[in-house]
Write a structure and sequence with these properties.
The chain is of the alpha/beta class. The chain contains seven helices and 28 strands. The protein folds into four domains: 7-19 and 174-322, MoaB/Mog-like domain (Molybdenum Cofactor Biosythetic Enzyme, Chain A, 3-Layer(aba) Sandwich); 20-43 and 139-173, Molybdopterin biosynthesis moea protein, domain 2; 48-135, Beta Complex (Molybdopterin biosynthesis moeA protein, domain 3); 332-404, MoeA, C-terminal, domain IV (Beta-clip, Beta Barrel), CATH 2.40.340. Helix 3 (203-213) runs parallel beside helix 6.
Length: 408
């Protein structure tokens, strides 16, 4: 049985970005840039005022104070958006609003709060340094500078930055098409009549929510009873329509776990079928080429916590890589354990837990309900404790590695 690290390495080695597409600025949120973005001009575009105030010659007001204000003649106003072709000479001033262009003759802007307006005369109560309250042209980015690099996710501030640079479209990485095939003869959709022995199907809902969180919208959902023929048909359909195929359930050793057999028979190249982790030991990963395109196949165990943990640990990194986020890794920190932690397996365990700040330290407590069928524990958790393979006991008060889980 391979280790988690080996499994993740194999998954990432076999996933590559699936391609690029040109996208409009307004639709680009959540995508990852597939080109470097340079400043086409200086940013700020021109010297402009950081405040509402009055433009002055510094020498005119060098002795100005609240007790001895300096009087200047007001010769005009420049609002944001005006062309600002006004010339001030010694002894004069111009009203300048925030964001307005600074004419060459203005050396500083004095905030309105330090001025008294009396019709055409302005009393200035404070001296100013040269360039005071002026945002200089190019002070943030000079023309030609690389501002946002390929591989950067387009978050709300990044989309704002791209807009401010004047870009209306650019290249991003495509998002993969994903199919989920839910197997199990016991499953009933929530809201439908449930006969004895049946349970409500939950994995498709949580996995679709996971995919949507990554902005993946092109999702096909297939269902199959535990019958080889049906599973085969659904997998074939999924392979022909998607880049990534996720089967759920039927990947273990039970008499009716047909998924691995079906995948072998369909010629999928298998990399692993079990991983030394808990939950989610039965865990399939394979690839195939269909019409010159590489398809990635994950087989998740059906227990709801197993399928979610497995998604988080192995599928999400692969999807992020396919979408261009090449070096995105999960966020790990150390936290102090609130109670003893024991285990019997020789596997890396992902213990569902709640971490919080207490008296200045980060403490962590496993949630109740650690069974791989117990969604309550993972629903409550905000992190996973990584309980190493080679340890069977960690005492209360010791530091453990936790991985923050980030579902929205
Ligand atoms: P399996 O991996 O198919 O052996 O399923 C393991 C356990 O997970 C069984 O108790 C199943 O009933 C349950 N299970 C499988 N698939 C789902 C699903 N989509 N939603 C909820 N429970 C499931
Ligand atoms: Mg099953």
């Amino acid at each position: 049985m391979i280790s988690f690290d080996e499994a993740l390495k194999l998954v990432l080695k076999n996933t590559t970005p699936i391609g690029k597409q040109k996208i409009k600025l307004k639709d680009s949120g959540g995508y990852v840039l597939a080109e470097d973005i340079k400043a086409k001009f200086n940013i700020p575009l021109f010297d402009n005022s950081a405040v509402d105030g009055f433009g002055v010659k510094v020498s005119d007001i060098k002795d100005a104070s609240a007790e001895l204000p300096v009087e200047l003649d007001l010769i005009g106003t420049i609002r944001a958006g005006d062309s600002g072709k006004i010339l001030i000479t010694p002894g004069t001033t111009v009203k300048i609003l925030t964001g307005a262009i600074i004419p060459d003759s203005v050396e500083a802007v004095v905030m309105k709060e330090f001025c008294l307006e009396a019709s055409n005369k302005i009393l200035i109560k404070k001296s100013a340094m040269k360039w005071g309250n002026i945002r200089r042209e190019g002070e943030e980015f000079c023309k030609g500078k690389e501002v946002v690099c390929m591989g950067k996710q387009i978050t709300p501030p990044v989309i704002g930055l791209l807009a401010s640079l004047g870009y209306s479209s650019f290249y991003v990485y495509k998002k993969p098409k994903v199919s989920i095939i839910v197997t199990g003869s016991e499953l009933v959709k929530p809201g439908k009549k449930r006969l004895p022995g049946k349970i409500y199907e939950s994995n498709s809902y949580s996995l679709i929510a996971c995919l949507k969180e990554l902005g993946i919208e092109n999702i096909s959902l297939f269902f199959a009873k535990d019958k080889k023929q049906i599973i085969t048909k659904q997998v074939q359909k999924a392979i022909s329509t998607s880049d990534v195929i996720i089967t759920v359930g039927g990947v273990s050793v039970g008499d009716y776990d047909f998924v691995k057999e079906v995948l072998y028979e369909l010629g999928i190249k298998t990399y692993f079928t079990t991983v030394a982790i808990k939950p989610a030991k039965p865990n399939y990963f394979g690839t195939c080429i269909k019409k010159n395109k590489k398809k990635i196949v994950f087989g998740l165990p059906g227990n709801p916590v197993s399928s979610l943990v497995s998604y988080h640990q192995l599928i999400k990194p692969a999807l992020l890589k396919m979408m261009g986020q090449i070096n995105k890794s999960s966020f790990h920190v150390k936290a102090q354990l609130e109670s003893d932690l024991k285990k019997k397996t020789n596997r890396l365990e992902f213990v569902r837990a709640v971490a919080e700040q207490k008296n200045g330290s980060l403490i962590v407590e496993p949630t109740k309900g650690q069974g791989s069928h117990m969604l309550g524990g993972i629903a409550e958790a905000n992190c996973l404790i990584h309980f190493p393979r080679d340890k069977d006991l960690i005492h209360k008060g010791q530091n453990v590695e936790i991985e923050l889980i980030s579902w929205n």
